[in-house]
Write a structure and sequence with these properties.
Layout lengths: L9 H5 L2 E5 L6 H14 L3 E4 L4 H8 L5 E6 L8 H14 L3 E5 L2 H5 L3 H17 L3 E5 L7 H13 L4 E3 L11 H9 L6 E5 L5 H9 L4 E4 L2 H27 L4
Parallel strand pairs: 1-2, 1-8, 2-3, 3-4, 4-5, 5-6, 6-7, 7-8
């Protein structure tokens, strides 16, 4: 059953959204406009390409919108030392949220200790700077057993979120994957759905499954839909309230 909007505020919706600005062809004006849109709707964060972090931070200064970026994106196969350097540069440029991709091949090869060490290296750098880490699994390439192991390794390494996908693989977030990830992480670990959450109804559906963040490009349409529905609820309530005023109750 879809989560009802009656007891949700616009902030509840907006603060689940990481506004995604990651496509390779986006020009400077598109990224800047995207950051301003994120500020207008007071979303949780923007997720920009590493080269855009400094400009995004300048545009969003004084707002409640965090600047996030990607590490080892989109395939996760950078050497850990390179990921660490990338993280350090992103943090220096003003990022406070890092979405890192695990070494997918290492996980599939059963090298769990290497995967945990890779995650932990980024977590240590980020947490020292007061930033958070979301660990991207890229579930399109994983079995359920590998997804469960990735959850456990992310938790052991101290990550703040587990995340389904980059948005660049053959498929993104599925409800089955989100249930699996929520079931295999403790409550203090967030779950982020990325890839395919493009409407308010889709957002409400994944929130019902325990998702606390989504990656979205359809931010404006989601929030405007929420406003319209809330206005409709308020409009429907007004005649009932007026009728009740004369009822003596």
């Amino acid at each position: 059953m879809t989560l009802s909007i009656e007891n949700l505020t616009e902030r509840d919706i907006a603060k689940t959204i990481d506004h995604s600005l990651l496509r390779p062809e986006l020009d400077d004006d598109f990224v800047a406009d995207g950051c301003r849109l994120a500020a207008t709707y007071d979303v949780a964060s923007v997720c920009v390409r590493p080269a855009d972090v400094r400009r995004a931070r300048a545009i969003l200064a004084g707002t409640d919108v965090a600047v996030g970026t990607t590490i080892g994106f989109p395939h996760g196969n950078h050497a850990t030392e390179i990921k660490v350097h990338e993280a350090e540069r992103a943090l220096a440029d003003g990022a406070t949220e890092l979405d890192m991709v695990i070494p997918i091949g290492a996980l599939k090869s059963g090298r769990d200790a290497d995967v945990e060490a890779d995650i932990r290296a980024i977590v240590d750098v980020a947490h020292q700077a007061g930033a958070i880490v979301k660990v991207i699994f890229e579930n399109a390439y994983l079995t359920d057993d590998e997804k469960v192991r990735a959850c456990h390794l992310s938790v052991a390494a101290g990550a703040d979120f587990v995340k389904t996908s980059t948005g660049f693989a053959p498929s993104g977030a599925t409800h089955d994957d989100l249930r699996l990830m929520r079931a295999n992480t403790p409550p203090h670990i967030g779950v982020k759905a990325a890839g395919g959450v493009r409407t308010l109804d889709a957002l409400l559906d994944v929130m019902e499954l325990g998702v606390t963040r989504i990656g979205a490009t359809a931010t404006e349409s989601i929030i405007l839909d929420f406003r319209a529905r809330k206005a409709g609820l308020a409009g429907a309530a007004e005649p009932a309230a007026a009728a009740g005023e004369g009822s003596g109750y």
